[in-house]
Amino acid sequence: MASIGFIGLGNMGGPMVKNLIKAGHGVRAFDVVTDATARARDEGAEIAGSAADAVSNCEIVITMLPAGEHVRSVYLEDDKVMDAAETGALLIDCSTIDIETARAMIGAADTRGFEMIDAPVSGGIGGATAGTLTFMCGGSDTAFARARPVLETMGKNIFHAGGAGAGQSAKV
What per-residue confidence (pLDDT) applies to 132? Predict the structure, then answer.
C-alpha cells in the first residue's frame, strides 16, 4: 500500500482519508482547521504540522481544497508542497477549481519532474463517505494509470477525460 500525504480534511477530504486508511494506505494529513485534523487522527491518520510536512516521505500527494487560489498557494506559494514532495511522487488534486489553474499546476509539476492529474470529484459528502465518488481526471496517460488504483479506494467511477485540465473541463 502507498504512503499518502493528504491536504484538506473538510467535508469531502475527511471521508476520503477514512476510505484510504480503510484500504490499508498510510496517510499523513494536514488541514488548517484543528477539528478536521482531530477527526482524521481519530480515523488513524498521522497528523502533520504543515502541508509541506504532510508530504515528506510520501509516494502520493492528494489535495482537496476549496478553490484554485488555495491549490496554487499549497503547491507553489505559501506551503511550497512541490518543493517539499519526494522525487517521483504522484500529485493528485481532487479540488474543483478553474481549468487555467489546473493546467498551470500540472505544468509546474511537469517542470519539476512530477506527474500530476486534476481529478475533481462528483458525488457529494454521501459519496465521499460511502467511497462511491466519481473522479473526472485530466493529465497524462501514465499519471492517470498511477493514480487509478488509489482513486478506486475512494470512488466507483474513475475516468480519464484527457490532458491537463480535462478533469475540470469534464466536471464543468
Answer: 97
